[in-house]
Design a protein that fits this description.
The chain is mainly alpha-helical. The protein has a single domain, classed as Up-down Bundle (Four Helix Bundle (Hemerythrin (Met), subunit A)). It has seven helices and three strands. It has helices at residues 2-11, 15-19, 30-45, 64-67, 69-85, 110-134, 147-163, and strands spanning 53-55, 93-99, 102-108.
């Protein structure tokens, strides 16, 4: 769901808007955050049979996905299809987790990593939303909002109606 919403947003962007630098050092662009999301999803999908190690540290970082929104939208479309066919019941996995000069190998599961990626994606979509708003790009009200927050908003709206 989040990737579909992101894909739809990205497909409507011009390369100029997608690449526009923001922040005091100019390090942030819509494209860099989209590419970052794609990298993380690919890291999990590249989990080979029998390998069992998820490594978010060593990502592909394809610069074209930062620069060209249509390429990123196409890749997001591909990832959505791969996720539909992806088996979250794969064997137990380990997470390569760097800490300083060391790296820990933490027990995890594919399902747990899918949950992480959902929250990670939505978190970066919230940042993308802030950058888009600075450019005057319209967004859906629920863009970059976690489902738990949407449910909270709904309960809050319902309680205000009942209280009146």
């Amino acid at each position: 769901m989040a990737l579909a919403q992101l894909r739809h947003f990205v497909a409507g962007l011009t390369p100029e808007a997608y690449q526009q630098a923001a922040g005091c050092r100019g390090r942030h662009t819509l494209g860099k955050h989209v590419r970052h999301i794609i990298d993380h999803v690919e890291a999990l999908l590249n989990l080979g049979p029998g390998e069992g190690v998820v490594d978010y540290e060593h990502r592909r970082r394809d610069a074209r996905l930062e620069q060209w929104p249509q390429q990123a939208a196409n890749r997001l479309d591909d990832l959505e299809a791969l996720l539909v066919a992806f088996d979250p019941q794969k064997e137990a996995a380990s997470l390569h987790y760097p800490v300083g000069d060391e790296a820990l190998m933490l027990d995890t599961s594919v399902s747990r990593e899918l949950a992480f990626l959902t929250s990670h994606t939505i978190h970066h979509m919230a940042i993308i939303g802030l950058l888009a708003e600075q450019q005057g790009i319209p967004l859906a009200e629920d863009f970059g909002v976690h489902p738990s927050t949407l449910r909270h908003w709904q309960r809050e709206a319902t309680s205000h109606v009942i209280a009146r």
